[in-house]
Amino acid sequence: MDGEVRSVTGKVLALLGAFTPACPELTLSELARRAGLSLATAHRRVAELVAWGALERGADGRYRVGLRLWEVASLAPRGLGLREAAMPFLEDLYEVTHENVQLAVREGLELVFVERIAGRKAVPVWTRVGGRFALHATGVGLALLAHAPVEVQEEVLGSPLQAYTEKTVTNPARLREMLAAVRRTGYAVSDGQVTTDAVSVAAPVRDGEGTVIAAVSLVVHASGAHPATLAPLVQAAARGIGRACGSPGGARVFPREPIAR
Amino acid sequence: MDGEVRSVTGKVLALLGAFTPACPELTLSELARRAGLSLATAHRRVAELVAWGALERGADGRYRVGLRLWEVASLAPRGLGLREAAMPFLEDLYEVTHENVQLAVREGLELVFVERIAGRKAVPVWTRVGGRFALHATGVGLALLAHAPVEVQEEVLGSPLQAYTEKTVTNPARLREMLAAVRRTGYAVSDGQVTTDAVSVAAPVRDGEGTVIAAVSLVVHASGAHPATLAPLVQAAARGIGRACGSPGGARVFPREPIAR
């Protein structure tokens, strides 16, 4: 069985990877099953993880990801590092619009939301900080995909593309045209392609060398939205974030290619 | 040597723990040295961590904490979970004051900042999201310490207490009086005790059972600050956050006692 031949490092990582947004709290037996470990092995490893603070055991006996792991993870340049550099610009975007502001990076063939600021009256969106999403539907996703290496684009466009609404573009040829438009205009628009009532306007964030390292977006109510009017605002924020990342002491961010898992 | 008898889990965790706010990027030999591992062992483990995405290797050959670890860590109830529940209330505090807003939890004998919103014109503060700080000096620290178990209070007050400014209170008897005042009034004030030009007003966040799980603060310029006027604002935010955490689907947060490391 897989669990028997895996290295101990692999077992430890499998235990950490057992936690998902849908299941952030797990019993020991759930942890063992999801990690593909025997109960005895899981018990031993989990005790070590709890002692270090990578996991925490609640009063209910269930395990959760621990604050100590979160502290270490907060050092990830593409997580909180990028977020810290971007925050003043995201706050500015939020203050002048009171709409949803999002910051995302590409991780392989998907995107990960690094920050989200949501106005109370803003249109509801599905995003969660630390959560993943497909690249072909959202504004930030299109901005990231438009500037991804060709092989990444081809792999995404060659895979089955989920339709979230009737407006989601799943035709590869049409998506290629949209990505070309993103590169030409400097911003991406997702109009009702994730939820019918929302329009997202996104711009790529570039580091000092011009490499796209992230994307920032404004997500507004579809009724009365003027993407072309919002675009300069988002593009200016993206430029500011890129500058802040490239400055001394700023976050150093490298895009990461998909890897076999 | 320690590295030889440690379990593989311990070695993996030592590699992750090698990254600190001061050293978020490390070469392989730095990683090996800090983790107390041979270069060969470190090389093998690091390769596994990179393959999984727990670490990332930059174009410069240095290693950083990876986005995949950050994704898993974002599931920590006391990290982003708490932060997500608190964010609307922190945004409100920021909007009406445009000062520094901070959210922290106690981790053993220190505090960890879980969120910070800083106005551009706000007084400069030292905090970093994911960063640690002593409990005896800041507003959030005093609010957390006042409601910590007696043994935690005694261990903190019995340790050498750093003086950050001439106004930092390091006398245990005086600190005990201050903690009693925090419990009586429901809020904590740190006036020039971390930096001379800043005043912090903090309030404890309680879960549904009344347990203090976090603290929220407003940090303003010392000149013209009226802590008693700011306190109700901070206390109201703290109550809102506590309610959001206790609600169905809200973050479930457990305080964690100090453990031997």
Automatic annotation (TrEMBL), chains A, B:
Pfam families: HTH_IclR, IclR_C. It comes from the Bacteria. Residues 68-247 form the IclR-ED domain. The lineage of its organism: Bacteria, Bacillati, Actinomycetota, Actinomycetes, Pseudonocardiales. Keywords: DNA-binding, Transcription, Transcription regulation. Residues 6-67 form the HTH iclR-type domain. It comes from Amycolatopsis thermalba. InterPro entries: GAF-like_dom_sf (IPR029016), HTH_MetabolicPath_Reg (IPR050707), Tscrpt_reg_IclR_C (IPR014757), Tscrpt_reg_IclR_N (IPR005471), WH-like_DNA-bd_sf (IPR036388), WH_DNA-bd_sf (IPR036390). This is IclR family transcriptional regulator. PANTHER family: HELIX-TURN-HELIX TRANSCRIPTIONAL REGULATOR, ICLR FAMILY (PTHR30136), HTH-TYPE TRANSCRIPTIONAL REPRESSOR ALLR (PTHR30136:SF24).
